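Anyone? Bumping this.
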Amino acid sequence: MSLSSRHLLGLYGVPKDDIQLILDTATTFREVLERPIKKVPTLQGKTIVNLFYENSTRTRISFELAQKRLSADTINFTTSTSSTKKGETFKDTVRNIEAMKVDMIVVRHQSAGVPQFLTRITKANIINAGDGLHEHPTQALLDMYSIREKFGELKGLNVCIVGDIAHSRVAMSNIFGLKTMGANVSVCGPSTMIPMGIESLGVKVINNIDKAIAENDVLNVLRIQLERDAGRRIPSTREYHNYFGITSERIEKNNKNIVILHPGPINRGVELSSEVADGPYQIILDQVTNGVAIRMAVLYLLGTMVN
Amino acid sequence: MNIKAKIIDEEGLNRTITRLAHEILERNKGSKNIVLIGMRTRGEYIAQRIKSKIKEIENCEPNFGVLDVTLYRDDFRTRLKQPQVSVTNITFDINEKDVILIDDVLYTGRTVRAALDALMDLGRPSTIQLCVLVDRGHRELPIKADFVGKNIPTSIDEEVKVKLKEIDGEDAVYLIHAPIKN
Amino acid sequence: MKIILKQVILFNPYQNLNEKNDLLIENGIIKKIGNISTDEFNSAKVFDFENKYCVPGLFDMHVHLREPGREDEETVETGSNAAAAGGFTGVACMPNTNPAIDSAEIVRYIKEKSSNHLVDVYPIGAATLDRKGEALSPMYELFEAGAVAFSDDGNAIKTAAILRHVMEYSKMFDAPIIEHCEDESLANGAMNEGLTSTILGLPAIPKIAEDLIVMRDIMMAEFTGARVHIAHISSKNSVELVRQAKKKNIKVTAEVTPHHFTLTEEALKNYDTNFKMSPPLRTREDVDAIIEGLKDGTIDCIASDHAPHSIEEKEMEFIFAPNGIIGLETQLGLALTELVHKKHLNFSQLIEKLSINPRKILNLPIPLIKENEKANLTIIDPDLIWTVDVSKFKSKSKNSPFDKRILKGKSLAVINKGKMFFEDKFFDIM
């Protein structure tokens, strides 16, 4: 069994079998992570570059750990300045890196489409670690893995994504992946944060958080990213918390069986109350552990693919 | 499948497993410190049968686990198909244990090499002993089995197929004509 | 020097002319239509254009020639070469150069640069100083130096207040104000807003950003009585706004680019920056409305918005890449393929939109196919099938999304100012 593409650019249009294979393979790596020596020699001799044009310590560390646990050689290239200001074009940077004989590139960039662009200018396998407002497929895969671990399967589950959907690549990847796996997906957030045309993707829009809690098995709660112009879409984080924040009272009133996910880092007191962030409903730290397993699975499946 | 000969039948297989169980117990002076680890896929079922036999003989069950060595293989660059990984399922501590590593056929020794590496990542056993149902020769690495069900000298264009009821619906070992394709 | 265009179809809707005949041009002047003697045939250079169309030279009222400032991307000369190769004998060039065309010197500089070229180049003056939307440019002076219209293209004129003054001032010399209609506060994006932008994750610009300014400009034109020309119209609602305004006799005209009637936002799915433009590619619904607007005359003309960009600039992360594509050399082919061969427009309507109407809007004389008139002509084979090859383009830049596209219809030759461009070469016919 192999994936149908040699890159992981997003989950839009990715066949069910591929997602299934990644999730199943991650189970193997989840076991490896429980061993005393959490390392296997599988990608020995492979060189992987983590090309991060946007700051993201968590995702980068998770990828780096996954690479090290597969015994790959890794290089980190992190820069927050855009290539336009740096003198060297993005294309030249990438060509230079490729000339050092790299096998895979994990890329994060503030512009959507950069992973696709990379597939046109290098021969390496490309893994998207977040591009603009487009996709963040490994985050969605680890969310799906965590949900599956909890419920056994994704089909028929009611999953609601809460927050700034319009500015969330995590939301988009989750929507595409979960829909493919047969879950019922809805979104909940202030109407300024719901993207145009979302209903045509078969996604229900709920504008009341109590209703979202009551009607769903899982809430995937997004970080309100004030640095990404969320400030112009909501009056204040206080108002956001009052109308869309998840609190213990809301959960107890509406649905005590709810499972809460959050991609981190959490804004305590904004999208989640501290009580909920530390409470029994959330599986946030499982997500982090599963993240390494999912990334190992993706790296393994792409890195050992037979051309 | 181009069968040349049926080398072991159902009864024979049962007898062989009984003998292997006895040999393991004899060498290790009982079952107290041993753990059985079957290698996916067929090693797992052979190990299970050996475990049942040991229970019959000793009235106590050794720990039993399954090892998947895919991640330790040395042939990722040369294979024509991507291998599928499965989960290793060893829920007990192997430190200071006598690990009986069980597989169906011993051939080049490369899978055993991968298994040894995998086991080392799980802990530090006192000993690792190799038990195989069939040794067909043609070793490429300095590896020797401690317990052998049957030695079957083969030529390079032959293959040994072990069939087990649990997955193949019958118990038998066949010698097959399988010319190497270039 | 005498040349004869043999058995061409002389075609000018402005003169109601549609006849097959021989045309004798002597020293750049149309000398004879028909009745050409054998002697004259023997002494002239004869071009066999039998059954090809000879129309008044095409005119593109919206190009960016990048000179002064970005001569690495295009110059007056290379842009004019591209125009000739695309079948155009005249262009009007936008003022978003560096410095902007906001002084008479720069108007004269551009005119001077083009004086010896076959293609007539008419500068469009900046409406405000440095296109900043703060103070009026010396419009009268620019007009006298040769500017034919005024625009802050690249942006809409910033505020209603300055727009009012620009319009009022322009009335003194009846020059149109050409508006790039986009509300700046809503235009912070890289493509059209909708389901596709949601899926592609690109920051997006809603259609209302265009519609609002079209509305504002129409109302301001009504209020001031000035002429406004809507550049590169792209949304369905904007087409309707222009249609209604024309019914009320407000002085509004509009143009559309070939890419806005050919492509939709779907083309962006591979993040190819050659499809990134402003206004962005819209939806099928908008394309259909635009074609309807072309048919019923709401949209007066077709203009390329020829916007050269260097390869380094375009081969970039999508959100950082600049907007715009070159279009002079594909415009006629696209218009014939998409509009005439698909029976949305007839050939006569096409020539109005590519030759006659732009000149009317800019108050320029319309070339006549008549004895003793200056020969300003384009020869078109509407049925020639060809493949776009950007590597053969005359333009200095190659940023076209239409590379490798098969088109039906092409210009074979252009004649103007005693010069001719034919088979990839310029030569004097004086």
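Late reply, but here is one note on the structure posted above: Strands of chain B lie at 3-8, 34-39, 63-67, 98-106, 127-135, 147-151, 158-163, 172-177.
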